[in-house]
Specification:
The complex is a heterodimer of chains A (about 170) and B (about 90). In chain A, about 35% of the residues lie in helices and about 10% in strands. By secondary structure, chain A is an alpha+beta fold. Chain A has 2 domains: about 5-120, Ferredoxin thioredoxin reductase catalytic beta subunit (Ferredoxin Thioredoxin Reductase), CATH 3.90.460.10; about 120-168, Rubrerythrin, domain 2 (Single Sheet). Bound molecules: iron/sulfur cluster.
Chain lengths: ~170, ~90
């Protein structure tokens, strides 16, 4: 799908899905509808040109292996929600922002600069000899599950399987 | 690298590096227009691939995170992100 082929209906539909999923997981989309829908359009554009919904506010070369941390919802959303009340793009906001108890301020970039990114930290696993199943961790929301393989979709935040890492 | 020009008051060389999909980038662009300042902008995500690296290199000189929007004011200071007060302040001499 090219940027020009994305209709307002496509944006509306995607917005509804994201809004529902956000609600189910205890998250909220930003209250400024026009702003939020522009970001949703950005996600659709990126999905069309890169094949995955890279963060609309971050630069991507369209190489998925380099971008696993910034596929929306990104690895940085939850820490930014905790600290600033919004994700970097402000697609997602906290309860406090939603209820006007806190005002929205710019969120500094938490993603490490390019030169430091290659050495993505992997969690050091402990001895697993005594576990009957490996434990998988969702990098987006921290959900843990013990099973042979990570789930296809995180039941909490809907991140896909490739966002899981071996935890134990 | 081809930049688009927006006419307005001359405040020196004002360059905005933006992404076409980024909400804070459009807000920054709107603010510059509201302030009536002449500036050049480029959507780095829409550049030909070979020019993207040049653009990112330029941004990283001012902003090692390489994040957007990056606004470079007269080759003397950079405003990173949509920091409304800082942007207004940069032009209120
Ligand atoms: S959750 Fe992350 S990837 Fe998604 S819009 Fe927010 S900052 Fe961008």
């Amino acid at each position: 799908m090219n940027a020009g082929d994305i209709s307002q209906d496509d944006v509306e539909r995607k917005y509804q899905v994201l809004d529902r999923e956000a609600g189910e997981g205890g998250y909220h989309l930003g209250p400024d509808n026009e702003f939020t829908k522009k970001l949703v359009r950005g996600l659709l554009i990126n999905e069309g040109r890169y094949g995955y919904p890279a963060c609309p506010c971050r630069f991507s070369r369209g190489i998925k292996a380099e971008d696993l941390d910034i596929i929306c919802p990104c690895d940085y959303r939850d820490p930014d929600l905790d600290q600033y009340g919004a994700c970097y793009c402000a697609l997602y906001v906290s309860d406090a922002i939603l209820s006007n108890k806190q005002s929205l301020s710019p969120v500094p970039e938490r993603r490490p600069p390019r030169c430091e990114r290659n050495s993505r930290k992997t969690i050091h696993t402990t001895q697993t000899g005594s576990l009957s199943y490996p434990v998988w961790r969702c990098r987006v929301c921290g959900y843990l599950c013990a099973r042979d393989e990570a789930p296809l979709v995180c039941p909490v935040c809907k991140a896909k399987k490739d966002r899981f890492e071996r935890f134990m | 690298m081809k930049m688009e020009h927006v006419d307005g008051k001359n405040e020196g060389k004002v360059v905005l590096f933006a992404l076409s999909t980024c909400g804070w980038c459009s807000k920054t662009k709107e603010l510059l227009k509201e302030l009536g300042i002449a500036f050049d902008f480029v959507y780095v995500d829409l550049l030909p691939t070979e020019e993207m690296d040049d653009a990112i290199g330029l941004i990283e000189k001012w902003n090692p995170a390489g994040s957007f929007p990056t606004l470079i004011v007269d080759d003397r200071k950079a405003v990173i992100g949509f920091r409304e007060e800082e942007i207004r302040g940069a032009f209120s001499k």
